[in-house]
Amino acid sequence: MRIEVRQTRPYPDQKPGTSGLRKKTRVFLENPTYLENFVQAIFDCLPDKAGKTLVLGGDGRYHNRKALQTIIKMALANGFGTLLVGQGGLLSTPAASHLIRKYHALGGIILSASHNPGGPDGDFGIKYNIDNGGPAPEKYTEAFYRRSQEISEYRIAVMDDIDLDTLGEHQLDGATLRIIDPVSDYAELMAQLFDFDRMRQALTSGKVSICFDAMHAVTGPYAKRILEGQLGAPQGSVINAVPLEDFGGGHPDPNLTYARELVEKMYGPDAPTLGAASDGDGDRNMILGRGFFVTPSDSLALLAANAHRAPGYRAGLRGVARSMPTSRAVDRVADALGIPCYETPTGWKFFGNLLDAGKITLCGEESFGTGSDHVREKDGLWAVLFWLNIVVASGQEVATLVKDHWRRFGRNYYTRHDYEAIPSDTGHAIMDDLRRKLPELPGQRFGSFTARAADDFSYTDPVDGSVTTGQGIRILLEPEARLIFRLSGTGTEGATFRIYMERYEPDPTRLDLDTQETLAELIELAETLSQVKQRTGRDGPTVIT
Ligand code: G16
User: What does the sequence similarity comment in the record state about its family (predicted)?
Assistant: First the structure.
Protein backbone atom coordinates (compact mmCIF):
# COMPACT_ATOMS: atom_id res chain seq x y z
CA MET A 1 0.00 0.00 0.00
CA ARG A 2 1.60 3.22 -1.17
CA ILE A 3 0.43 6.53 0.24
CA GLU A 4 0.16 9.49 -2.05
CA VAL A 5 -0.23 13.12 -1.10
CA ARG A 6 -2.15 14.84 -3.89
CA GLN A 7 -2.57 18.54 -4.49
CA THR A 8 -6.03 20.09 -4.48
CA ARG A 9 -7.85 23.45 -4.26
CA PRO A 10 -10.75 24.46 -1.99
CA TYR A 11 -14.38 24.46 -3.13
CA PRO A 12 -16.24 27.43 -1.68
CA ASP A 13 -19.52 25.60 -0.99
CA GLN A 14 -18.56 22.90 1.51
CA LYS A 15 -20.48 24.25 4.48
CA PRO A 16 -22.46 21.45 6.16
CA GLY A 17 -26.19 22.08 6.64
CA THR A 18 -28.68 20.68 9.16
CA SER A 19 -27.27 17.21 8.58
CA GLY A 20 -23.86 17.04 6.89
CA LEU A 21 -22.84 18.14 3.40
CA ARG A 22 -25.75 17.47 1.05
CA LYS A 23 -25.50 18.36 -2.64
CA LYS A 24 -26.71 17.34 -6.05
CA THR A 25 -24.96 14.09 -6.98
CA ARG A 26 -23.55 15.90 -10.01
CA VAL A 27 -21.57 18.21 -7.76
CA PHE A 28 -19.70 15.13 -6.48
CA LEU A 29 -19.43 13.59 -9.95
CA GLU A 30 -18.33 16.64 -11.89
CA ASN A 31 -15.92 18.27 -9.47
CA PRO A 32 -12.83 16.11 -9.17
CA THR A 33 -11.72 15.85 -5.52
CA TYR A 34 -14.97 17.35 -4.17
CA LEU A 35 -15.43 14.32 -1.93
CA GLU A 36 -11.71 13.99 -1.22
CA ASN A 37 -11.46 17.61 -0.05
CA PHE A 38 -14.31 17.30 2.42
CA VAL A 39 -13.11 13.95 3.76
CA GLN A 40 -9.57 15.29 4.22
CA ALA A 41 -11.01 18.37 5.94
CA ILE A 42 -12.81 16.07 8.39
CA PHE A 43 -9.68 13.99 9.00
CA ASP A 44 -7.52 17.09 9.46
CA CYS A 45 -9.84 18.19 12.27
CA LEU A 46 -9.43 14.88 14.15
CA PRO A 47 -6.02 15.13 15.78
CA ASP A 48 -6.07 11.79 17.63
CA LYS A 49 -7.06 9.46 14.82
CA ALA A 50 -3.89 7.35 14.62
CA GLY A 51 -4.73 3.71 15.28
CA LYS A 52 -8.40 4.53 16.01
CA THR A 53 -11.53 2.84 14.69
CA LEU A 54 -13.74 4.43 12.03
CA VAL A 55 -17.20 3.14 11.02
CA LEU A 56 -18.11 3.50 7.34
CA GLY A 57 -21.29 2.88 5.39
CA GLY A 58 -24.13 4.50 3.55
CA ASP A 59 -27.70 4.19 2.41
CA GLY A 60 -26.82 2.42 -0.85
CA ARG A 61 -27.75 5.27 -3.16
CA TYR A 62 -26.02 5.93 -6.48
CA HIS A 63 -22.30 6.74 -5.97
CA ASN A 64 -22.30 5.08 -2.50
CA ARG A 65 -19.91 2.28 -3.40
CA LYS A 66 -17.50 4.42 -5.38
CA ALA A 67 -17.33 7.11 -2.71
CA LEU A 68 -16.78 4.46 -0.03
CA GLN A 69 -13.79 3.02 -1.88
CA THR A 70 -12.22 6.49 -1.93
CA ILE A 71 -12.96 7.08 1.76
CA ILE A 72 -11.52 3.68 2.73
CA LYS A 73 -8.26 4.51 0.92
CA MET A 74 -8.12 7.97 2.48
CA ALA A 75 -8.85 6.62 5.98
CA LEU A 76 -5.99 4.14 5.62
CA ALA A 77 -3.67 6.88 4.36
CA ASN A 78 -4.65 9.08 7.30
CA GLY A 79 -3.64 6.50 9.87
CA PHE A 80 -6.84 4.91 11.18
CA GLY A 81 -6.13 1.52 12.74
CA THR A 82 -9.45 -0.25 12.14
CA LEU A 83 -12.19 0.33 9.60
CA LEU A 84 -15.60 -1.25 10.13
CA VAL A 85 -17.49 -1.20 6.84
CA GLY A 86 -21.07 -2.38 6.32
CA GLN A 87 -21.40 -5.27 3.85
CA GLY A 88 -22.39 -4.03 0.41
CA GLY A 89 -21.47 -0.55 1.63
CA LEU A 90 -24.71 -0.43 3.62
CA LEU A 91 -25.29 0.93 7.10
CA SER A 92 -28.41 2.68 8.27
CA THR A 93 -27.73 5.90 10.16
CA PRO A 94 -28.96 4.51 13.51
CA ALA A 95 -27.03 1.25 13.00
CA ALA A 96 -23.86 3.25 12.31
CA SER A 97 -24.48 5.24 15.48
CA HIS A 98 -24.81 2.01 17.44
CA LEU A 99 -21.61 0.53 15.95
CA ILE A 100 -19.61 3.64 16.83
CA ARG A 101 -20.76 3.35 20.44
CA LYS A 102 -20.46 -0.41 20.74
CA TYR A 103 -16.95 -0.65 19.26
CA HIS A 104 -15.67 2.59 20.86
CA ALA A 105 -14.88 4.05 17.47
CA LEU A 106 -13.52 7.57 17.12
CA GLY A 107 -16.42 8.24 14.78
CA GLY A 108 -18.02 7.29 11.52
CA ILE A 109 -18.77 8.56 8.05
CA ILE A 110 -22.26 7.95 6.68
CA LEU A 111 -23.00 8.54 3.02
CA SER A 112 -26.58 9.63 2.56
CA ALA A 113 -28.82 12.46 1.47
CA SER A 114 -31.50 11.02 3.72
CA HIS A 115 -34.99 11.19 2.21
CA ASN A 116 -33.87 13.08 -0.92
CA PRO A 117 -34.02 11.11 -4.20
CA GLY A 118 -30.85 9.42 -5.46
CA GLY A 119 -29.27 8.85 -8.88
CA PRO A 120 -27.06 11.04 -11.08
CA ASP A 121 -29.77 13.71 -11.10
CA GLY A 122 -30.66 13.22 -7.46
CA ASP A 123 -28.78 14.07 -4.29
CA PHE A 124 -25.76 12.71 -2.46
CA GLY A 125 -24.40 13.53 0.96
CA ILE A 126 -21.73 12.86 3.53
CA LYS A 127 -21.91 13.30 7.28
CA TYR A 128 -19.55 12.66 10.15
CA ASN A 129 -20.62 11.24 13.50
CA ILE A 130 -18.48 11.64 16.60
CA ASP A 131 -17.49 9.13 19.28
CA ASN A 132 -20.83 9.32 21.11
CA GLY A 133 -22.43 8.01 17.89
CA GLY A 134 -24.21 11.28 17.17
CA PRO A 135 -23.99 13.80 14.33
CA ALA A 136 -21.00 16.10 14.64
CA PRO A 137 -22.06 19.17 16.65
CA GLU A 138 -21.62 22.63 15.22
CA LYS A 139 -18.14 23.24 16.61
CA TYR A 140 -17.00 20.29 14.49
CA THR A 141 -18.97 21.11 11.35
CA GLU A 142 -17.72 24.69 11.47
CA ALA A 143 -14.15 23.43 11.84
CA PHE A 144 -14.64 21.05 8.86
CA TYR A 145 -15.88 23.96 6.79
CA ARG A 146 -13.01 26.26 7.80
CA ARG A 147 -10.51 23.54 6.99
CA SER A 148 -12.18 22.84 3.62
CA GLN A 149 -11.58 26.48 2.71
CA GLU A 150 -7.83 26.27 3.14
CA ILE A 151 -7.18 22.73 2.02
CA SER A 152 -4.29 22.21 -0.39
CA GLU A 153 -3.66 18.46 -0.35
CA TYR A 154 -5.22 15.13 0.56
CA ARG A 155 -3.77 11.73 1.44
CA ILE A 156 -4.83 8.52 -0.24
CA ALA A 157 -3.59 4.93 -0.35
CA VAL A 158 -2.91 3.58 -3.81
CA MET A 159 -4.41 0.10 -3.81
CA ASP A 160 -7.05 -2.11 -5.41
CA ASP A 161 -10.68 -1.62 -4.52
CA ILE A 162 -11.90 -3.65 -1.55
CA ASP A 163 -14.54 -6.35 -2.09
CA LEU A 164 -17.40 -4.78 -0.15
CA ASP A 165 -19.73 -7.76 -0.54
CA THR A 166 -17.83 -10.52 1.25
CA LEU A 167 -17.86 -10.56 5.04
CA GLY A 168 -14.40 -10.85 6.55
CA GLU A 169 -11.20 -9.19 7.60
CA HIS A 170 -8.39 -7.65 5.53
CA GLN A 171 -4.97 -6.84 7.01
CA LEU A 172 -3.51 -3.84 5.20
CA ASP A 173 -0.04 -2.73 6.31
CA GLY A 174 -0.86 -2.78 10.01
CA ALA A 175 -4.46 -1.60 9.64
CA THR A 176 -7.50 -3.86 9.85
CA LEU A 177 -10.49 -3.52 7.58
CA ARG A 178 -13.53 -5.55 8.53
CA ILE A 179 -16.58 -6.01 6.30
CA ILE A 180 -19.34 -6.53 8.83
CA ASP A 181 -22.96 -7.64 8.74
CA PRO A 182 -24.83 -4.31 8.89
CA VAL A 183 -27.84 -5.77 10.70
CA SER A 184 -26.79 -8.14 13.50
CA ASP A 185 -25.50 -5.71 16.16
CA TYR A 186 -28.50 -3.46 15.62
CA ALA A 187 -30.97 -6.37 15.78
CA GLU A 188 -29.42 -7.50 19.06
CA LEU A 189 -29.93 -4.02 20.52
CA MET A 190 -33.61 -3.93 19.47
CA ALA A 191 -34.21 -7.29 21.17
CA GLN A 192 -32.95 -5.80 24.44
CA LEU A 193 -35.37 -2.87 24.28
CA PHE A 194 -38.63 -4.48 23.22
CA ASP A 195 -40.74 -7.46 24.20
CA PHE A 196 -39.82 -9.67 21.25
CA ASP A 197 -41.54 -12.78 22.72
CA ARG A 198 -44.90 -11.09 23.02
CA MET A 199 -44.54 -9.35 19.67
CA ARG A 200 -43.67 -12.67 18.00
CA GLN A 201 -46.72 -14.32 19.53
CA ALA A 202 -49.02 -11.54 18.34
CA LEU A 203 -47.59 -11.55 14.81
CA THR A 204 -47.45 -15.32 14.31
CA SER A 205 -50.95 -15.85 15.70
CA GLY A 206 -52.27 -13.18 13.33
CA LYS A 207 -53.71 -11.09 16.19
CA VAL A 208 -51.59 -8.22 15.01
CA SER A 209 -50.31 -7.57 11.50
CA ILE A 210 -47.83 -5.12 10.05
CA CYS A 211 -46.83 -3.64 6.72
CA PHE A 212 -43.42 -1.98 6.64
CA ASP A 213 -42.42 -0.02 3.54
CA ALA A 214 -38.63 0.13 3.20
CA MET A 215 -39.00 2.30 0.08
CA HIS A 216 -36.13 0.43 -1.63
CA ALA A 217 -33.80 2.09 0.82
CA VAL A 218 -31.44 0.92 3.54
CA THR A 219 -33.94 -0.45 6.10
CA GLY A 220 -35.03 -3.32 3.82
CA PRO A 221 -32.48 -5.84 5.15
CA TYR A 222 -33.01 -4.66 8.73
CA ALA A 223 -36.80 -4.94 8.58
CA LYS A 224 -36.69 -8.30 6.78
CA ARG A 225 -34.37 -9.79 9.40
CA ILE A 226 -36.16 -8.36 12.44
CA LEU A 227 -39.84 -8.26 11.47
CA GLU A 228 -40.12 -11.31 9.23
CA GLY A 229 -37.12 -13.27 10.60
CA GLN A 230 -36.98 -12.74 14.35
CA LEU A 231 -40.58 -11.71 14.98
CA GLY A 232 -42.22 -14.10 12.52
CA ALA A 233 -44.33 -11.62 10.58
CA PRO A 234 -45.53 -13.32 7.36
CA GLN A 235 -43.28 -13.01 4.29
CA GLY A 236 -44.31 -9.93 2.37
CA SER A 237 -44.96 -7.87 5.51
CA VAL A 238 -41.93 -5.82 4.42
CA ILE A 239 -42.50 -4.23 1.03
CA ASN A 240 -39.97 -2.58 -1.32
CA ALA A 241 -37.36 -4.39 0.75
CA VAL A 242 -34.40 -4.47 -1.65
CA PRO A 243 -32.15 -1.38 -1.44
CA LEU A 244 -31.66 0.10 -4.91
CA GLU A 245 -29.30 2.81 -6.09
CA ASP A 246 -32.21 4.94 -7.34
CA PHE A 247 -34.70 3.79 -4.70
CA GLY A 248 -36.71 2.20 -7.53
CA GLY A 249 -37.19 5.65 -9.06
CA GLY A 250 -39.01 6.74 -5.89
CA HIS A 251 -38.51 9.43 -3.33
CA PRO A 252 -37.46 7.65 -0.12
CA ASP A 253 -39.38 10.03 2.10
CA PRO A 254 -41.82 8.34 4.47
CA ASN A 255 -44.83 10.62 4.24
CA LEU A 256 -48.37 10.43 2.92
CA THR A 257 -47.30 11.58 -0.54
CA TYR A 258 -44.31 9.38 -1.26
CA ALA A 259 -45.18 6.16 0.59
CA ARG A 260 -48.14 5.72 -1.78
CA GLU A 261 -48.29 1.93 -1.83
CA LEU A 262 -48.30 1.71 1.95
CA VAL A 263 -50.85 4.48 2.35
CA GLU A 264 -53.24 2.81 -0.11
CA LYS A 265 -52.95 -0.43 1.82
CA MET A 266 -53.57 1.26 5.16
CA TYR A 267 -56.66 3.06 3.89
CA GLY A 268 -57.93 -0.04 2.04
CA PRO A 269 -60.23 -2.88 3.16
CA ASP A 270 -57.48 -5.30 4.26
CA ALA A 271 -55.33 -2.88 6.16
CA PRO A 272 -53.00 -4.47 8.71
CA THR A 273 -52.94 -3.27 12.33
CA LEU A 274 -49.81 -1.19 11.90
CA GLY A 275 -48.33 0.49 8.85
CA ALA A 276 -44.89 2.07 8.82
CA ALA A 277 -42.19 3.37 6.54
CA SER A 278 -38.64 4.59 6.86
CA ASP A 279 -36.46 6.83 4.71
CA GLY A 280 -33.26 6.54 2.63
CA ASP A 281 -30.87 6.09 5.55
CA GLY A 282 -33.32 4.58 8.02
CA ASP A 283 -33.55 7.33 10.60
CA ARG A 284 -37.02 8.70 9.81
CA ASN A 285 -40.32 6.94 10.35
CA MET A 286 -43.99 7.30 9.53
CA ILE A 287 -46.64 5.49 11.58
CA LEU A 288 -50.13 4.60 10.37
CA GLY A 289 -53.01 2.68 11.85
CA ARG A 290 -55.98 1.31 9.91
CA GLY A 291 -57.19 4.36 7.98
CA PHE A 292 -55.30 6.60 10.39
CA PHE A 293 -52.12 8.71 10.16
CA VAL A 294 -50.14 9.55 13.29
CA THR A 295 -48.34 12.89 13.04
CA PRO A 296 -44.68 12.71 14.09
CA SER A 297 -45.34 15.18 16.91
CA ASP A 298 -48.20 13.03 18.24
CA SER A 299 -46.06 9.93 17.79
CA LEU A 300 -43.42 11.39 20.10
CA ALA A 301 -46.07 12.30 22.69
CA LEU A 302 -47.64 8.83 22.48
CA LEU A 303 -44.30 7.08 22.85
CA ALA A 304 -43.52 9.17 25.92
CA ALA A 305 -46.91 8.46 27.49
CA ASN A 306 -46.72 4.72 26.75
CA ALA A 307 -42.99 4.10 27.21
CA HIS A 308 -43.61 2.00 30.34
CA ARG A 309 -45.13 -0.70 28.10
CA ALA A 310 -41.72 -1.51 26.54
CA PRO A 311 -39.12 -3.37 28.66
CA GLY A 312 -36.27 -1.01 27.77
CA TYR A 313 -38.17 2.00 29.11
CA ARG A 314 -40.09 0.43 32.00
CA ALA A 315 -37.92 2.20 34.56
CA GLY A 316 -39.33 5.55 33.38
CA LEU A 317 -38.07 8.50 31.40
CA ARG A 318 -35.51 10.98 32.72
CA GLY A 319 -36.76 13.73 30.48
CA VAL A 320 -37.80 14.39 26.89
CA ALA A 321 -36.80 16.87 24.20
CA ARG A 322 -38.25 18.15 20.96
CA SER A 323 -37.03 20.54 18.32
CA MET A 324 -38.55 24.01 18.54
CA PRO A 325 -40.92 23.64 15.55
CA THR A 326 -42.22 20.25 16.78
CA SER A 327 -45.68 20.48 18.34
CA ARG A 328 -46.03 20.85 22.07
CA ALA A 329 -47.99 17.62 22.48
CA VAL A 330 -45.04 15.99 24.24
CA ASP A 331 -44.71 18.94 26.65
CA ARG A 332 -48.06 17.98 28.18
CA VAL A 333 -46.97 14.40 28.67
CA ALA A 334 -43.76 15.57 30.32
CA ASP A 335 -45.82 17.78 32.66
CA ALA A 336 -48.04 14.84 33.60
CA LEU A 337 -45.01 12.62 34.20
CA GLY A 338 -43.25 15.35 36.18
CA ILE A 339 -40.15 15.25 33.96
CA PRO A 340 -38.36 18.05 32.10
CA CYS A 341 -39.02 18.81 28.44
CA TYR A 342 -36.24 20.58 26.51
CA GLU A 343 -36.78 22.66 23.38
CA THR A 344 -33.82 22.56 20.96
CA PRO A 345 -33.11 23.96 17.50
CA THR A 346 -33.87 21.77 14.46
CA GLY A 347 -31.18 19.15 13.93
CA TRP A 348 -30.56 15.89 15.76
CA LYS A 349 -27.09 17.09 16.75
CA PHE A 350 -28.69 19.30 19.41
CA PHE A 351 -30.03 16.28 21.32
CA GLY A 352 -26.56 14.73 21.71
CA ASN A 353 -25.45 16.58 24.85
CA LEU A 354 -28.82 16.10 26.57
CA LEU A 355 -28.68 12.36 25.86
CA ASP A 356 -25.02 12.05 26.92
CA ALA A 357 -25.68 13.92 30.16
CA GLY A 358 -28.61 11.64 30.99
CA LYS A 359 -31.05 14.56 30.97
CA ILE A 360 -33.41 12.95 28.48
CA THR A 361 -34.45 9.45 27.44
CA LEU A 362 -36.70 10.20 24.43
CA CYS A 363 -36.59 12.93 21.81
CA GLY A 364 -38.15 13.72 18.49
CA GLU A 365 -38.93 16.14 15.71
CA GLU A 366 -41.81 17.06 13.48
CA SER A 367 -39.74 15.95 10.46
CA PHE A 368 -40.61 12.28 11.04
CA GLY A 369 -37.79 11.64 13.51
CA THR A 370 -37.97 9.93 16.90
CA GLY A 371 -35.27 8.36 18.99
CA SER A 372 -33.95 7.59 22.44
CA ASP A 373 -30.77 7.19 24.43
CA HIS A 374 -30.15 3.73 22.86
CA VAL A 375 -28.19 5.47 20.05
CA ARG A 376 -27.41 9.11 19.21
CA GLU A 377 -29.45 9.35 16.01
CA LYS A 378 -33.12 9.24 15.25
CA ASP A 379 -34.12 5.70 14.52
CA GLY A 380 -36.87 4.70 12.09
CA LEU A 381 -37.16 0.97 12.71
CA TRP A 382 -36.79 1.46 16.47
CA ALA A 383 -39.85 3.75 16.41
CA VAL A 384 -41.80 1.14 14.45
CA LEU A 385 -40.85 -1.60 16.91
CA PHE A 386 -41.79 0.70 19.80
CA TRP A 387 -45.23 1.25 18.28
CA LEU A 388 -45.61 -2.46 17.61
CA ASN A 389 -44.71 -3.19 21.23
CA ILE A 390 -47.28 -0.65 22.45
CA VAL A 391 -50.02 -1.97 20.14
CA VAL A 392 -49.33 -5.54 21.26
CA ALA A 393 -49.08 -4.71 24.97
CA SER A 394 -52.21 -2.53 25.01
CA GLY A 395 -54.29 -4.74 22.72
CA GLN A 396 -55.56 -1.55 21.06
CA GLU A 397 -55.76 -0.14 17.58
CA VAL A 398 -53.41 2.72 16.69
CA ALA A 399 -56.34 5.13 16.18
CA THR A 400 -57.82 4.24 19.57
CA LEU A 401 -54.52 4.82 21.31
CA VAL A 402 -54.15 8.26 19.72
CA LYS A 403 -57.75 9.34 20.32
CA ASP A 404 -57.60 8.24 23.96
CA HIS A 405 -54.39 10.24 24.25
CA TRP A 406 -56.11 13.36 22.88
CA ARG A 407 -59.00 12.91 25.32
CA ARG A 408 -56.54 12.78 28.19
CA PHE A 409 -54.15 15.55 27.15
CA GLY A 410 -56.05 17.61 24.57
CA ARG A 411 -54.96 17.78 20.93
CA ASN A 412 -52.28 19.92 19.35
CA TYR A 413 -53.55 20.44 15.80
CA TYR A 414 -50.42 20.82 13.70
CA THR A 415 -49.35 21.32 10.11
CA ARG A 416 -46.24 22.28 8.16
CA HIS A 417 -46.38 24.10 4.81
CA ASP A 418 -43.23 24.01 2.67
CA TYR A 419 -42.40 26.33 -0.22
CA GLU A 420 -39.63 24.36 -1.88
CA ALA A 421 -36.88 25.53 -4.24
CA ILE A 422 -37.68 29.24 -4.08
CA PRO A 423 -34.84 31.65 -4.94
CA SER A 424 -32.42 31.89 -2.02
CA ASP A 425 -32.58 35.70 -1.99
CA THR A 426 -36.36 35.64 -1.69
CA GLY A 427 -36.18 33.14 1.17
CA HIS A 428 -33.68 35.25 3.07
CA ALA A 429 -35.59 38.47 2.36
CA ILE A 430 -38.82 36.98 3.76
CA MET A 431 -36.99 35.91 6.90
CA ASP A 432 -35.28 39.30 7.28
CA ASP A 433 -38.60 41.12 7.01
CA LEU A 434 -40.22 38.84 9.55
CA ARG A 435 -37.29 39.42 11.87
CA ARG A 436 -37.76 43.18 11.53
CA LYS A 437 -41.43 42.86 12.48
CA LEU A 438 -40.70 41.00 15.72
CA PRO A 439 -40.57 43.94 18.17
CA GLU A 440 -43.99 45.26 17.12
CA LEU A 441 -45.84 41.91 17.35
CA PRO A 442 -46.38 41.28 21.08
CA GLY A 443 -49.79 42.55 22.18
CA GLN A 444 -51.14 42.83 18.61
CA ARG A 445 -54.49 41.25 17.87
CA PHE A 446 -54.93 39.06 14.78
CA GLY A 447 -58.56 37.87 14.41
CA SER A 448 -59.25 35.51 17.29
CA PHE A 449 -55.59 35.44 18.39
CA THR A 450 -53.34 37.85 20.25
CA ALA A 451 -49.56 37.68 19.96
CA ARG A 452 -48.10 36.98 23.38
CA ALA A 453 -44.43 36.90 22.41
CA ALA A 454 -42.27 36.79 19.31
CA ASP A 455 -38.59 36.06 18.85
CA ASP A 456 -35.87 34.59 16.69
CA PHE A 457 -35.23 31.34 18.53
CA SER A 458 -31.89 31.03 20.22
CA TYR A 459 -30.70 28.08 22.27
CA THR A 460 -28.28 27.82 25.13
CA ASP A 461 -27.15 24.23 25.51
CA PRO A 462 -27.79 23.36 29.17
CA VAL A 463 -24.79 21.01 29.21
CA ASP A 464 -21.93 22.94 27.62
CA GLY A 465 -23.40 26.45 27.61
CA SER A 466 -22.88 26.90 23.86
CA VAL A 467 -25.27 29.38 22.26
CA THR A 468 -26.92 28.90 18.86
CA THR A 469 -28.82 31.86 17.46
CA GLY A 470 -31.11 32.56 14.48
CA GLN A 471 -32.94 29.22 14.63
CA GLY A 472 -36.36 30.33 13.39
CA ILE A 473 -38.99 33.00 13.93
CA ARG A 474 -41.41 32.04 16.65
CA ILE A 475 -44.71 33.78 17.31
CA LEU A 476 -46.59 32.63 20.40
CA LEU A 477 -50.31 33.35 20.44
CA GLU A 478 -53.25 33.34 22.84
CA PRO A 479 -55.39 31.19 22.98
CA GLU A 480 -52.55 28.71 22.86
CA ALA A 481 -51.15 28.57 19.33
CA ARG A 482 -47.81 29.08 17.57
CA LEU A 483 -46.56 30.20 14.18
CA ILE A 484 -43.00 29.34 13.22
CA PHE A 485 -41.02 30.33 10.14
CA ARG A 486 -37.62 29.04 9.12
CA LEU A 487 -35.49 28.14 6.13
CA SER A 488 -34.60 24.49 5.69
CA GLY A 489 -30.98 23.50 6.17
CA THR A 490 -31.19 20.33 4.08
CA GLY A 491 -32.31 21.47 0.63
CA THR A 492 -29.99 21.29 -2.36
CA GLU A 493 -31.79 23.73 -4.66
CA GLY A 494 -32.50 27.38 -3.85
CA ALA A 495 -34.19 27.79 -0.47
CA THR A 496 -37.07 25.97 1.15
CA PHE A 497 -39.28 28.14 3.31
CA ARG A 498 -41.12 26.25 6.05
CA ILE A 499 -44.14 27.47 7.99
CA TYR A 500 -45.21 25.48 11.03
CA MET A 501 -48.64 26.09 12.55
CA GLU A 502 -50.04 24.73 15.76
CA ARG A 503 -53.14 25.25 17.90
CA TYR A 504 -54.04 23.52 21.13
CA GLU A 505 -57.59 22.18 21.49
CA PRO A 506 -58.67 21.02 24.95
CA ASP A 507 -62.42 20.64 24.15
CA PRO A 508 -63.20 16.88 24.06
CA THR A 509 -65.97 17.45 21.51
CA ARG A 510 -63.56 19.08 19.05
CA LEU A 511 -60.79 16.50 18.77
CA ASP A 512 -61.74 14.92 15.45
CA LEU A 513 -61.72 17.92 13.12
CA ASP A 514 -59.90 18.35 9.84
CA THR A 515 -56.44 19.76 10.53
CA GLN A 516 -56.20 22.19 7.59
CA GLU A 517 -59.70 23.57 8.28
CA THR A 518 -59.07 23.90 11.97
CA LEU A 519 -55.85 25.77 11.31
CA ALA A 520 -57.23 27.85 8.42
CA GLU A 521 -57.10 31.14 10.33
CA LEU A 522 -53.50 30.53 11.38
CA ILE A 523 -52.52 29.51 7.86
CA GLU A 524 -53.92 32.76 6.53
CA LEU A 525 -52.21 34.76 9.23
CA ALA A 526 -48.87 33.11 8.43
CA GLU A 527 -49.29 33.90 4.75
CA THR A 528 -50.20 37.51 5.49
CA LEU A 529 -47.30 38.06 7.86
CA SER A 530 -44.73 36.51 5.52
CA GLN A 531 -46.38 37.49 2.22
CA VAL A 532 -44.94 34.25 0.95
CA LYS A 533 -47.38 33.83 -1.94
CA GLN A 534 -46.85 37.31 -3.41
CA ARG A 535 -43.11 37.16 -2.96
CA THR A 536 -42.64 33.73 -4.49
CA GLY A 537 -45.42 33.99 -7.07
CA ARG A 538 -46.70 30.63 -5.86
CA ASP A 539 -50.37 29.74 -5.35
CA GLY A 540 -49.60 27.72 -2.29
CA PRO A 541 -47.13 25.41 -0.62
CA THR A 542 -45.32 22.65 -2.53
CA VAL A 543 -45.81 20.15 0.27
CA ILE A 544 -48.22 20.06 3.19
CA THR A 545 -47.61 17.68 6.07
C1 G16 B 1 -32.29 16.28 9.08
C2 G16 B 1 -31.95 16.50 10.52
C3 G16 B 1 -33.19 16.69 11.33
C4 G16 B 1 -34.04 17.82 10.76
C5 G16 B 1 -34.32 17.52 9.29
C6 G16 B 1 -35.04 18.67 8.59
O7 G16 B 1 -32.96 15.06 8.95
O8 G16 B 1 -31.23 15.41 11.06
O9 G16 B 1 -32.81 16.98 12.65
O10 G16 B 1 -35.23 17.93 11.44
O11 G16 B 1 -33.12 17.32 8.61
O12 G16 B 1 -34.22 19.78 8.58
P13 G16 B 1 -34.58 21.09 7.76
O14 G16 B 1 -35.93 21.54 8.28
O15 G16 B 1 -33.46 22.04 8.10
O16 G16 B 1 -34.68 20.72 6.32
P17 G16 B 1 -32.61 14.04 7.80
O18 G16 B 1 -33.51 12.86 8.03
O19 G16 B 1 -32.90 14.78 6.52
O20 G16 B 1 -31.16 13.75 7.99
Answer: Belongs to the phosphohexose mutase family.
